[in-house]
C-alpha cells in the first residue's frame, strides 16, 4: 500500500514539474498572446468605426455597402491577430495561410453563384444604376425598388406583387430606369379621318397642351403628321413633363383629346377595309372538275 502511494506521489510530482516547466517556458508567449488578443479586438473595433465614419462622409456611398466594408475590415484585422497569436507558440503560419487560401478557393467554388450575387450587389451599390424608390425594368421584370442587398434586390410591381431578384440577374443585363431623369417625353398619337381638317386637329392638340400646367413650356410641345395609315391620318403631339407627372398627364391628355375632337367634329375612325365584289356570269359553265363531280353524283 505504501508502495502504491509513493508511486502516485512520484507521478504527481513529475507531472507538476512538467507543467511548471511548460508554464515557465511559455509564460511570456501566453502573456503575449493574451495581450495581442485584447489589443487585436480593440484595434479591430477602432478600424471598423474608422472605416464606417470615413465612408459615411460620402453621401453617395450606400449604407449597406458601408456596413459590409467596415465588417470586412474588422474581420481582416482579427484574422491577422489570430495568425500572429499562433506564431507566438511556434506554429508555422505559412502553412496556416496556405490552408486558409485553399479553404477560401474551395468555398468560393462551392458558393460561386452566391459570390457572384455578392459581387454584383457591390457593383450595384457602387455604380447605382437604380436607387430605392425608383421604377426600373430589367431581365423582363419591372417594379419599384424597395431594398438593395448584397445578395438580392427587392422590388414591388405596379399591381402590388413582391419580387426578389438575384443581383447577378440585374447586373448582367440592360436596366431601364424610368425615374432617374427629372423629365420625360411623351408622344400622344391619335388617328383622324382622311376627310377631317388636319390643321384643326393639330391646333386642338396644341391648345390642350397649352392649357395643362404640367406640360413644360421651356421645351415647347409640337404637333405633326406622323403616319398615313390604311384608315386614318396619325397626328402626334410631342410634349415633355416632369417624371412624377408623366403617367397621369398621359392619361388625362388622352381623355381630353378625345373629348375635344368630339366637340369639334373631328372623327377618330375605326379600322376599315374596302371590299369590291366582282359580278359573276351565271351562264358560265361550271369547271370541268365540278361537272364531273355532278355527273358522278
From TrEMBL:
Residues 188-268 form the Mechanosensitive ion channel MscS C-terminal domain. Residues 72-112 form the Mechanosensitive ion channel transmembrane helices 2/3 domain. It holds the Pfam family MS_channel_1st. Residues 114-180 form the Mechanosensitive ion channel MscS domain. It is a multi-pass membrane protein. The chain crosses the membrane at residues 26-47, 68-90, 96-127. SUPFAM superfamilies: Mechanosensitive channel protein MscS (YggB), C-terminal domain, Mechanosensitive channel protein MscS (YggB), transmembrane region, Sm-like ribonucleoproteins. The keyword Repeat does not apply. It comes from the Bacteria. The keyword Cell membrane applies. Keywords: Cell inner membrane, Cell membrane, Ion channel, Ion transport, Membrane, Transmembrane, Transmembrane helix, Transport. It is found in: Cell inner membrane; Cell membrane. Signal peptide: none annotated. Its main location: membrane. Mechanosensitive channel that participates in the regulation of osmotic pressure changes within the cell, opening in response to stretch forces in the membrane lipid bilayer, without the need for other proteins. Contributes to normal resistance to hypoosmotic shock. Forms an ion channel of 1.0 nanosiemens conductance with a slight preference for anions. Belongs to the MscS (TC 1.A.23) family. Homoheptamer. This is Small-conductance mechanosensitive channel.
Amino acid at each position: 500500500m505504501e508502495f502504491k502511494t509513493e508511486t502516485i506521489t512520484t507521478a504527481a510530482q513529475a507531472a507538476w514539474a512538467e507543467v511548471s516547466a511548460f508554464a515557465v517556458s511559455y509564460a511570456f508567449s501566453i502573456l503575449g498572446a493574451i495581450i495581442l488578443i485584447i489589443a487585436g479586438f480593440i484595434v479591430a473595433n477602432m478600424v471598423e468605426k474608422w472605416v464606417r465614419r470615413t465612408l459615411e462622409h460620402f453621401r453617395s456611398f450606400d449604407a449597406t455597402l458601408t456596413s459590409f466594408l467596415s465588417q470586412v475590415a474588422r474581420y481582416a484585422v482579427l484574422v491577422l491577430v489570430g495568425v500572429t497569436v499562433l506564431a507566438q507558440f511556434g506554429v508555422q503560419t505559412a502553412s496556416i495561410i496556405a490552408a486558409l487560401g485553399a479553404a477560401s478557393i474551395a468555398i468560393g467554388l462551392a458558393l460561386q453563384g452566391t459570390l457572384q450575387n455578392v459581387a454584383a450587389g457591390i457593383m450595384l451599390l457602387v455604380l447605382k444604376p437604380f436607387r430605392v424608390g425608383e421604377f426600373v425594368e430589367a431581365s423582363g421584370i419591372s417594379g419599384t425598388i424597395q431594398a438593395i442587398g448584397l445578395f438580392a434586390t427587392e422590388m414591388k410591381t405596379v399591381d402590388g406583387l413582391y419580387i426578389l431578384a438575384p443581383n447577378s440577374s440585374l447586373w448582367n443585363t440592360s436596366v431601364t430606369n424610368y425615374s432617374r431623369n427629372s423629365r420625360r417625353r411623351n408622344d400622344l398619337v391619335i388617328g383622324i379621318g382622311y376627310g377631317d381638317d388636319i390643321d384643326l386637329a393639330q391646333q386642338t392638340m396644341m391648345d390642350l397642351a397649352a392649357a395643362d400646367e404640367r406640360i413644360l413650356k421651356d421645351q415647347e410641345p409640337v404637333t405633326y403628321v406622323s403616319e398615313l395609315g390604311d384608315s386614318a391620318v396619325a397626328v402626334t403631339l410631342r410634349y415633355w413633363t416632369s417624371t412624377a407627372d408623366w403617367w397621369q398627364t398621359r392619361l388625362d391628355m388622352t381623355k381630353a383629346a378625345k373629348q375635344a375632337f368630339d366637340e369639334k367634329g373631328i372623327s377618330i375612325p375605326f379600322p376599315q377595309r374596302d371590299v369590291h365584289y366582282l359580278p359573276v356570269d351565271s351562264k358560265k359553265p361550271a369547271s370541268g372538275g365540278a361537272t364531273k363531280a355532278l355527273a358522278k353524283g
